[in-house]
Design brief:
The complex is a heterodimer of chains A (218) and B (242). In chain A, helix 6 runs antiparallel to helix 7. Chain A has one domain. Chain A is built from 10 helices and no strands. In chain A, 82% of the residues lie in helices and 0% in strands. Chain A starts with a helix and ends with a helix. With 242 residues, chain B is an all-alpha fold. Chain B has a domain of 157 residues. Chain B contains 6 helices and no strands. Classes of the chains: A mainly alpha (218), B mainly alpha (242). At the A-B interface, helix 8, helix 9 and helix 10 of A face helix 4 and helix 5 of B. Chain B: This is Heme exporter protein C.
Amino acid sequence: MIALLARDLRLAIRAGGGFGLGLAFFLILATLVPLGVGPDATLLRPIGPGILWLGALLACLLSLDRIFALDLEDGSLDLLATAPIPLEGVATIKALTHWITTGLPLTVAAPALSLLLFLPTSALPWLVVSLLIGTPALSWLGTFGAALTVGLKRGSLLLSLLVLPLYIPTLVFGAEVVRRGGDGLSVATPLALLAAITLGCVAVLPFATAAALRINLR
Amino acid sequence: MSFWEYANPRRFMALSAKIQPWVWAAATVLCATGLIWGFFFTPEDFRMGNSVKIIYIHVPSAFIAINAWFMMLVASLIWLIRRHHVSALAARAAAPIGLIMTIVALLTGAIWGKPMWGTYWEWDPRLTSFLILGLFYLGYSALWSAIEEPDAAADLTSILCLVGTVFAVLSRYAAQFWSQGLHQGASLSLDAEENVADVFWQPLVISLAGFVALFLALVLMRTRTEIRRRRLSTLTARDRLA
């Protein structure tokens, strides 16, 4: 499993892997929003948490269809399915790779981008914490969606239709943590719920992902 | 004689052909009674006036919109556990009906909301979760039509239905989290305290039963269509080989 993780990470980082694409998209979104709604700080400050979380969501979505598509094309997915490690483990590793290459960079870059949206400094730690806790759920859900649509010709549009509704609870609680944190309120409840969603996703979704993969490889 | 005998498509077709006219008749009679009674023979509400009468479409369609999803969940589970094709096809048949009912509930709600709340739309938890439910129906139907191999499509949509159920419920509570909302509480709970008054209640129950019968009739009809389509494709495939 470690070897698989190392292989996927290498593939993602080298040329054509799409690493950093999500990050660039995140940057562009954070730049475009003030250009669209106007540079007014009183306007941007309340919508900042929502925009940053939406950006993370969409940036995550960009790289989802690559999770399994390339492996299916060159046949390595068939090899992985017959390999001694369980397919559930493969699904977990794929999701983890996706998180390391998109969720983690987004979390690191978010504080810098929040300056563009005039987010109060009191919200910054909560922004990082909520992204750190919330983005794994996005990757695991996305891997599940990618497994559902892996064999399809025009799967990527369908993939976003399937995955985005599943992202709703994460988005609501994640943005709520940042908003409350910025206002100096207690963040315990939404943060606990966000962590609950992530842990539930990490624990259960690999089984659904593996089931979907087996059906698609049949 | 077990219930599972009707998992055989031939038996199902025979049975459904027999009961379908009755279900249609029940749907017509109950809907007509409930709606005509509700529209013409109930008093006006003292606060809402005539606009209260949209409740006879709004509540039943919302009821069907939610329960169609649960019917799909049960049918998906039956497909995953016992591999009965009729069950998978029934789940497929119910999805567009549920989507239409969701849209009807949202539209009638908007028409009702304008004179009462002064707005067509409000990000109220109930309204939001219905919109999200509509998105889930859309994704489910889109996945069905995207996959060509019928068994794989049935499997994948069933898994999506299971995961989707969890997240639809989660979204409902997530939406409740950030606003308390304008929508009134349950109008149909068994707890009589918060129910609507009796004069409105009786026709409402009848139109509710009518909508349930209508849903059953539509699901039966669409499932039969799906089974016939499946048979037709087998026949044409055999023809092509011969």
